[in-house]
Prior knowledge:
The longest helix is centred in the first third of the chain and has 23 residues, at 15-37. 56% of the residues lie in helices and 8% in strands. The model is unreliable at 1-8 and 198-219 (pLDDT under 50). Among the domains are: 2-74; 101-170, Arc Repressor Mutant, subunit A (Orthogonal Bundle). By secondary structure, it is mainly alpha-helical. It starts with a helix and ends with a helix. The protein has a two-stranded antiparallel ribbon. The chain has a two-stranded antiparallel ribbon with strand order 3-4. The chain has helices at 2-10, 15-37, 46-49, 51-59, 63-74, 101-116, 124-135, 141-150, 169-187, 210-218; strands spanning 153-158, 162-167, 198-200, 205-207. Strand 1 (153-158) and strand 2 (162-167) form a beta hairpin. Helix 2 (15-37) packs across helix 5 (63-74) and helix 6 packs across helix 7 (124-135).
Amino acid sequence: MSNLKCERKRKIIHSEGRAIIARVYHFLQEEYNFMKANNMDHCDLSPLANIRKRTAEATGFSERTVTTILKEEKELPSSSASFTSPMKKRRKRNNKFNLDNMNLEIIRTTVQNFHIVEKQLLTLSKLRSVLREKIGFDGCLNTLRSILKKLGYKWRKIGNNREALQERHEIQLWHLNFLKKIFQYRSEGRPIVYTDETYVLTSHVRLNTPKAINSFQRN
């Protein structure tokens, strides 16, 4: 019996169930009032008088639950208003995923490889699977969508109700201007220096470039 009570206590009664319990109560109430008004034989109607208890027995819930539902019904703004379902408490998932510049560059390169190397239509699910293996990405699809937007990508509708990922126009224009400048500087014979990340070691700073590594080894 105690286990049954525990199960009832944990059970969530949604709006439809609450409305049914309230209707059962009012039906039994009207039934009792009718029988009492037409009791010509003066029968004992005392077993039918406890409407709340009969409602609990008919619906399988406790009298306390019936009392709570009837109280909620009285607090409804109008007779046509309906019950509301209690919100289930859910653990909010932390969708934040910290990414440094190196991880962001890996994401950008992965997107480019889908289009240029693998020649596949990129989807968020495919990209998330690859990034999970490369950088341990465990964010949701919405988080990944936000990251792509931050990197300058947007979704463009194509045929068959599908979407393709592409860089925004201003990002494409920036790349074009960059390539034009590189071509101009090379044609003018101007030196071009590429910068890269540096690693701070205990005794010195070493550039993470092939030329710097060779120079460091010769020294």
